[in-house]
Write a structure and sequence with these properties.
Layout: H1 7-72, H2 75-83, H3 91-107, E1 114-121, E2 126-128, H4 134-141, H5 143-152, E3 158-163, E4 169-179, E5 184-193, H6 195-202, E6 210-215, E7 221-225, E8 235-239, E9 248-254, H7 255-299, H8 301-304, H9 313-373, H10 377-393, E10 400-402, H11 403-420, E11 425-430, E12 439-441, H12 446-455, E13 464-473, E14 476-483, H13 490-498, H14 511-522, E15 527-533, E16 537-544
Parallel strand pairs: 11-13
Antiparallel strand pairs: 1-2, 1-5, 3-4, 4-5, 6-7, 6-9, 8-9, 10-12, 13-14, 14-16, 15-16
Amino acid sequence: MKENKTIKGMMIKSVIIFCLIPFFLLWLSFAVSSGIELKKNIESEQRTIVRLLGISVDNYFYEIEEAMGKVSSDNKVQDILKTVDRNKYDSQLYNADQYILKMIGKTCLSFTGVENIIVANMEGGYYSTGIVENFMLDYIQNTEKLKEEIYNHQGRTWITAAHSENNASSLVLVKPVMDLENAEFIGMMYFVINKSEMDSLLKKSLDKQEAIFLLDDTGGCIYSENEMLMNEAGMVVTKSEVNSYGATVVTGVSVLQYGRQLLLRQLLLLFLFAGATVMVFILIQYIYQKINGQISGLLHPEEEGKIQDTTYFEIRQINHQMMTLMQKNDEGEKRIVKLVNHCETMTLDKLQAQINPHFLYNTLTSIKYIALENEQKQISDLITALVKLLRSTINREGFFIPLARELENVRNYICIQNAVYKGNVDFRIEIPEKLLDYRVPNFILQPLVENCIFHGIHPEEKGGEICISSYVTQKGLILTVKDNGDGFPEDCLMNMMGAENNKEMMTNFGLKGVQQKIQIACGEEYGIFVTSTKNEGATVEITLPLILEEGDKDSAEGYDSR
């Protein structure tokens, strides 16, 4: 059952399709793009912050390393590390201890946040500015591990962390001491920095809701702040490049804390959109009631008491069109009655037309038998050919017929013409037997053969030849009708082949009807093509679709054989 559509439904549907849905999609795309843009801005800002923090850390460690280098490169310090026995307490050890502390105090103690500065030889013996805790002592005296780390860092200074028993950690800048004369490592120098110094260096540019880490070259964490924030959703993590000390600065910030204000603005916009939607539907209801009242007054005047004149121009136009259509409907009914009467007359004419050919066939058959009784075989053969030809022209078996039957029609026609012209026309058919079952539009070859006889060869003289051949290509079934007559004049042939759809210049040569018949039945891509040489004859090439059963090829679209 067909759905009854209303103006109100149409108005609501139009508003939904052309207003609400586009606006919602626009809002959704704005929300998504704003979120993406916000994340990009945060990432860009964090990259800048991380880069600046990395530079600050790098500069801070560089200044310390420079001070450590002054101590480690001192000749006397290097002699102490190579010669002084830390296990033998004597004046030499005392003087060595005092000298190293003096060098450290002169170059390194000016830095804030220094917990301890340690100079040690490769056997674990050390000199320090303060008490060395057990966890740090274990690190210093693990000489095998130190040698491995020196190898891994290729003798460069690196940064690591030392953890105490109460889980407190300190950053340690480690610098190998190299014997400048023998090019070998003779000791280590450790610069222990407390966490508060790193707090002041790293946290000054960060918000309370941001996390920060300092990683060593193995990815291990040597400093962290607000570590629990990394478990929150929507964290944007940014890393700096690894500096010359193998350290990497990592920050994490939540997109949500930046997006709350944006989310509130988007929700406000959505609420305004919802309010506007309600107002639009109220307006639609009001407009519908006004229009429906006017239309109801036109369609049901008996309910309103009298026919009311509308104040809306469009509805007046509808009323006028309705009255016009009613008038045309009355006129149409009268015409239908006349057409019915006319159809009855045409049916009688059609029945009469079916009777007339039947009468003609019977009459010609009677003449044929009279000719045979009087031993006039040629006349009998002519009448037989004529009857077959007439039956073919009034064919009721379908528009497409087998190629074999179409060739039979041509033979009957040639039989009649050769009787007239005393057999002067040499007619040949050169078609493989396997092609005879293909179907072609009926009566397309006879007009072309007739064309050859009356416009090409001279049938009153001997020597005229007509040949019909056929073959199959990718284009379809190709039929050719060739004669050895006068051919077409060159200007006529050029005009004929240049005419649109090969129709305009084909009238006088019997080709237009064949061309139109093929293209109507098979499609515009099929038809005839004419070539000719003056005084050597003409060739008409027909291109047809490959059809074995009538209607089995879509090239015959648009034609109904019924």
